[in-house]
């Protein structure tokens, strides 16, 4: 329900078991329901149905009605080839600023936040559409492309993650100009259960940390760095346990038509070659690989 809406019991029925063990289906009327209050937004509200002195309960949620622009920001599409449904939004209200990295060098950082209203709409739409993917796209508000971006950070309300895990089997896909990460439902459940907090914060960096500098020789002058980190509050999530994340990285122009390798670099600078596949979409080339942990 949205704030201010009236109770709607259309299609609502209960099954009553009589004293002789027979059953009958009873159409619920509005006067049989108590506990309904749409005057303010709540994540969960318990309504009670009373019939012949017996009661049954069910849960509803009351949301703030999205504005027209907010509604337009969330759309569900169906892939004509795979029939997969994707409910997605583009975060347009981002901030680009110059900050210092841990080596004291200036880098460009894009910060984006999914509002509570858009997150609620995103989840509601994904649940009602039975979507396979929930997709969030981050664009810099100054139109910068990947070459100018060094770090992207996106904040998503934790309650939205909890709802996706509880009410859908959807993967969470986060797209930036530097790359894309698809977190499957098992991994998303691991992240949601890992810590308490109000926000999931995902960061995508394109620079080595100081402890990883010994691996710089494996990257050379042409390699591309993509580091993903996930936080609930101040707790960093490393192990995805039984879940996986699929990472898709654009192949830069200078590496097209060349043999490339994907290398996992631990926080201590230890390198490990990771199996990957190549995919071409139009004129763009991508390297795709899976990971069971963020580092």
Describe the structure.
This protein has 295 residues and is mainly beta. It has 5 helices and 21 strands. An 8-stranded mixed beta sheet has the order 6-7-10-12-13-17-21-20. Strands 8-9-11-14-15-16 form a 6-stranded mixed beta sheet. A 3-stranded antiparallel beta sheet has the order 3-4-5, with no helix packed on it. Strand 3 and strand 4 form a beta hairpin. The longest helix has 14 residues. About 2% of the residues have low confidence.
| Share of helical residues | 10-25%
Strand order of the largest sheet: 6-7-10-12-13-17-21-20
Overall number of strands: 21
By helix and strand content, what is the structural category?
mainly beta
How big a fraction of the residues is strand?
35-45%
From the spread of the alpha carbons, the general shape counts as: elongated
Give the N-to-C terminal Cα separation: 41 Å
Estimated radius of gyration: 24 Å
Give the helices and strands as they follow along the chain: EEEEEHEEEEHEEHEEHEHEEEEEEE
Q: Main sheet?
A: 8 strands, mixed
Assembly category: single chain
Q: Average pLDDT across residues?
A: 83
Number of helices: 5
């Amino acid at each position: 329900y949205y704030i201010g809406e009236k109770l709607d019991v259309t299609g609502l029925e209960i099954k009553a078991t009589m004293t002789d063990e027979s059953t009958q289906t009873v159409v619920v009327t509005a006067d049989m329901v108590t506990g309904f209050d749409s005057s303010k937004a709540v994540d969960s509200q318990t309504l009670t149905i009373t019939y012949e002195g017996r009661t049954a309960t069910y849960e509803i949620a009351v949301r703030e009605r999205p504005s027209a622009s907010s509604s337009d920001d969330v759309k569900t599409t169906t892939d004509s080839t795979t029939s997969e449904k994707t409910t997605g939004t583009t975060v347009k209200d981002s901030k680009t600023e110059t900050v210092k990295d841990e080596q004291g060098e200036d880098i460009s950082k894009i910060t984006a936040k999914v509002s509570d209203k858009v997150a609620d709409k995103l989840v509601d739409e994904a649940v009602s559409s039975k979507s396979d993917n929930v997709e969030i796209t981050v664009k810099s508000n100054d139109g910068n492309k990947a070459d100018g971006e060094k770090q992207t950070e996106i904040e998503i309300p934790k309650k939205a993650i909890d709802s996706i895990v509880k009410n859908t089997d959807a993967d969470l896909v986060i797209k930036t100009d530097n790359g894309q990460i698809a977190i499957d439902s098992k991994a998303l459940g691991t992240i949601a259960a890992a810590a308490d907090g109000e926000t999931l914060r995902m960061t995508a960096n394109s620079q080595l940390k100081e402890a990883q500098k010994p691996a710089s020789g494996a990257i050379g002058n042409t390699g591309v760095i993509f580091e993903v980190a996930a936080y609930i509050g101040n707790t960093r999530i490393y192990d995805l346990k039984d879940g996986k994340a699929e990472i898709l990285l654009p192949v830069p122009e200078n590496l097209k038509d060349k043999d490339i390798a994907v290398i996992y670099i631990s926080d201590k600078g230890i390198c490990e070659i990771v199996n990957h596949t190549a995919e071409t979409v139009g004129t763009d080339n991508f390297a795709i690989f899976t990971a069971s942990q963020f580092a």
